[in-house]
């Protein structure tokens, strides 16, 4: 297999790329990060990764992270054309977790889209599985150490089994005979003997497929001998039964021949007039057909003139209703204008009312002298008065006037005015008390407060409070607050009226509305729009029904014209068909009459057909019974019962001999497998030879392979036969890379030499010194004659060392 072409619209960081590959060596040349590795990954994905990305799997997650375009691409796409056994195939894949697509195009151009069918074709095209290609064909030089770990039987049994089985086929020969051929020969002989036979149970493998239901094909000799014996046993028993059946069939055949002779005579009599009866049937059928057509034509001839008259009346009615509809539409247009006139009048009236209300509200607003600031001040004065009173109350004074010679006793308590009290009265005062008579004047102040200052503050605030009430024209703070609320309500109403006027104007000016109203004045009266619309709807519905009826009648007339062109042509054709019927009826009189036992020609024809079928049935039955009689006669055994019993004994001996032969082959197979297991230890020798030869070329004879164990442990020895450790990482970079490349070519060559193929080499000569690189170039050139090689490098000088198809990336 080899790659011919690769193209992609978008894959990871590359897009709109197409590359042609040739036989031999192809070099992908490009700078670092140019997309060489991406191209290789895309080729691998095209062959082995399903287009449906399952993001709950490791492969799906890794593919999305590595190859879907960054940052938010949701698909990748590639097409790979390749050649296998001179036939060209093409893979197309669009990877996505939802909108995925993929197909395999076959050499004949057919496209296979079902994944199961594609897998079947892949198994035919590719000699090995996905893991083998991943670890051998696509593995990079840098990852060869990881690759060698992966091909251990523990980590990757598929690949090691592939290599083991291949090498075993190639090298393990027994006395010059291929082991596989020898094993196949034993297996084939056993299969030829025991197919469909259970040797251990000594019985048919499937109990339901014995002598009564034997296999036709795919059976072994033991099964065949067993069936032959049992069939002979059955034939001996069947012989007597066959003889008795032979006699019974003879009697049945005689009766059938008598019935056949009778019905043949009846058929002969009817056949003499069959031709004319058939003609009569045809003429009758034609007459019936013409009668049906003339009947239809007469109906059309009657309907046609009526349809035309009805159509004319309908068209006149349509014209009248259309005119009425136009009048109604004009009336509704008038009604709508009148309605608009009324709406404008109403709007103007509402606007003027709102403007009047607005003016009234503005006047009321102007009459209210209260402001929020005044109410705040009024409240502040009141609070200060209350605070002063509270301070005075804190220094409460109490006195009692027990005796006084004065006639009049006056007191001043707190901030209150002067008042007269009686002798013996208890006096209470807030912070200050003054008692005055004609002879006495006593002032008492609380030592806890500054009464004079408090009184001054109280009087000043009391004065301001009273003055502000006078300005605001209120009797107290509650009335002031009420006025403030009334002011706010007036402002709200003013704003609401302004909004109402603006809404009524709807962006227009009063002058424009008045102008529109002037244009609409003087219109002729009209009914209510709804009333007119109902009449229009009713009339429109009537017109629609009229139009439908007119259309139906027009269509019917057009059908008549399509069938008969014109009414005159129809009448001419009708006259011709009636004459044709008269001619056919005359023809009936000339034909043979129908026998009395039949009511119609169809009954005659049906009965004759039934008699012929009955005759055929009898004849068929007679042939079958005659054939069965002959078969029974032929099946009667020619040999005697004694001869058949002797043959039965011979078959029993043959069956026993075949069973013994099968048992002997089983013993031979067991011994062979034991010997084969003993020889299996040398299965890696061809790989050792290839590896050693490649290593000698790469190291100019300095190193060669020592051995490769069954667990794929590799030992290397120098030209002095000194064995080196099997762990590559302990070698020098140059020797390590040489050994890795030598082993990889050896494995690839042993696996693919019978199939051909391609191998991917990254820049595998980086750690080679000039001499080893020269040897490596020679080794690659040698392998490119047998296989297609795709070599990636970023160094133009390294690419120039080869004669190859240079592909710039």
TrEMBL record:
InterPro entries: P-loop_NTPase (IPR027417), YhaN_AAA (IPR038734). Pfam families: AAA_27. Gene3D superfamilies: P-loop containing nucleotide triphosphate hydrolases. Residues 229-398, 437-682 form a coiled coil. It comes from the Bacteria. Keywords: Coiled coil, Exonuclease, Hydrolase, Nuclease. The keyword Transferase does not apply. The keyword DNA repair does not apply. Residues 1-48 form the YhaN AAA domain. One of its GO terms (molecular function) is exonuclease activity. PANTHER family: ABC TRANSPORTER ABCH.3. Heterodimer of SbcC and SbcD. Belongs to the SMC family. SbcC subfamily. This is Nuclease SbcCD subunit C. It comes from Halanaerobium saccharolyticum.
């Amino acid at each position: 297999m080899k790659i011919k072409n690769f193209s992609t619209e978008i894959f990871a960081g590359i897009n709109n790329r197409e590359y042609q590959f040739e036989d031999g060596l192809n070099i992908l040349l490009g700078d670092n990060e140019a997309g060489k590795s991406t191209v290789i990954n895309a080729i691998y994905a095209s062959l082995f990764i399903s287009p449906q990305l399952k993001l709950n799997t490791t492969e799906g997650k890794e593919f999305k992270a590595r190859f879907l375009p960054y940052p938010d691409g949701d698909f990748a796409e590639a097409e790979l054309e390749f050649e296998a056994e001179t036939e060209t195939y093409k893979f197309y894949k669009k990877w996505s977790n939802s909108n995925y697509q993929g197909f395999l195009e076959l050499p004949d151009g057919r496209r296979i889209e079902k994944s199961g069918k594609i897998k079947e074709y892949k198994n035919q095209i590719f000699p090995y599985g996905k893991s083998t290609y991943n670890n051998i064909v696509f593995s990079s030089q840098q990852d060869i150490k990881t690759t060698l770990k992966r091909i251990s039987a523990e980590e990757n049994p598929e690949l090691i089994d592939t290599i083991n089985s291949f090498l075993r086929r190639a090298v393990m020969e027994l006395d010059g005979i291929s082991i596989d051929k020898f094993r196949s020969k034993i297996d084939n002989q056993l299969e030829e003997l025991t197919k469909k036979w259970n040797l251990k149970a000594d019985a048919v493998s499937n109990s339901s497929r014995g002598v009564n239901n034997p296999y036709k094909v795919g059976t072994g000799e033991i099964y065949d001998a067993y069936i032959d014996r049992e069939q002979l046993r059955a034939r001996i028993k069947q012989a007597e039964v066959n003889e008795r059946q032979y006699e019974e069939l003879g009697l049945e055949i005689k009766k059938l021949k008598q019935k056949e002779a009778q019905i043949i005579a009846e058929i002969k009599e009817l056949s003499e007039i069959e031709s004319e009866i058939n003609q009569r049937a045809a003429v009758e059928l034609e007459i019936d057909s013409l009668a049906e057509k003339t009947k239809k034509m007469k109906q059309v001839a009657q309907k046609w003139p009526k349809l035309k008259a009805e159509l004319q009346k309908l068209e006149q009615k349509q014209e009248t209703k259309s005119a009425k509809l136009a009048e109604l539409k004009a009336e509704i247009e008038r009604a709508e204008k009148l309605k608009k006139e009324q709406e404008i009048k109403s709007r103007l009236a509402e606007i003027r009312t709102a403007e009047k209300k607005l003016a009234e509200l503005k006047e009321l607003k102007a009459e209210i002298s209260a402001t929020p600031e005044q109410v705040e001040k009024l409240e502040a004065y009141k609070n200060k008065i209350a605070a002063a009173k509270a301070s005075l109350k804190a220094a409460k004074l109490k006195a009692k006037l027990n005796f006084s010679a004065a006639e009049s006793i006056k007191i001043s308590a707190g901030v209150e005015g002067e008042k007269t009290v009686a002798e013996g009265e208890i006096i209470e005062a807030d912070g200050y008390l003054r008692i005055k008579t004609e002879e006495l004047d006593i002032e008492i102040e609380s030592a806890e407060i500054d009464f004079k200052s408090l009184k001054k503050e109280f009087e000043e605030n009391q004065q301001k409070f009273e003055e502000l009430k006078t300005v605001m024209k209120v009797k107290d703070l509650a009335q002031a607050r009420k006025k403030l609320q009334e002011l706010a309500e007036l402002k709200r109403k003013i704003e609401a009226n302004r909004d109402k006027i603006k809404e009524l104007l709807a962006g227009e000016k009063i002058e424009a509305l008045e102008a529109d109203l002037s244009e609409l004045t003087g219109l002729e009266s009209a009914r209510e729009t709804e009333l007119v619309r109902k009449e229009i709807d009713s009339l429109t519905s009537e017109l629609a029904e009229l139009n439908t009826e007119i259309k139906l009648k027009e269509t019917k007339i057009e059908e008549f014209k399509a069938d008969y062109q014109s009414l005159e042509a129809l009448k001419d054709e009708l006259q011709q068909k009636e004459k044709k019927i008269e001619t056919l009826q005359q023809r009936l009189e000339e034909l043979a009459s129908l026998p009395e036992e039949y009511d119609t020609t169809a009954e005659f024809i049906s009965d004759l057909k039934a008699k012929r079928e009955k005759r055929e049935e009898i004849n068929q039955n007679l042939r079958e019974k005659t054939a069965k009689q002959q078969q029974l006669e032929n099946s009667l055994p020619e040999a005697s019962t004694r001869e058949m019993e002797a043959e039965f004994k011979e078959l029993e001996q043959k069956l026993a001999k075949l069973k013994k032969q099968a048992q002997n082959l089983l013993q031979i197979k067991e011994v062979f497998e034991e010997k084969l297991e003993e020889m299996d230890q040398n299965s890696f020798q061809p790989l050792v030879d290839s590896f050693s030869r490649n290593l000698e070329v790469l190291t100019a004879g300095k190193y060669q392979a020592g051995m490769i164990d069954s667990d794929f442990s590799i030992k290397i020895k120098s030209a002095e036969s000194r064995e080196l450790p099997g762990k590559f990482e302990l070698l020098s970079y140059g020797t390590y890379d040489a050994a890795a490349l030598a082993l990889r070519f050896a494995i690839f060559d042993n696996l693919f030499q019978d199939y051909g193929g391609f191998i991917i080499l990254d820049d595998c000569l980086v750690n080679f010194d000039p001499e080893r690189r020269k040897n490596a170039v020679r080794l690659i050139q040698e392998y490119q004659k047998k296989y297609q090689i795709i070599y990636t490098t970023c160094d133009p000088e390294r690419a120039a060392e080869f004669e190859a198809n240079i592909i710039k990336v």
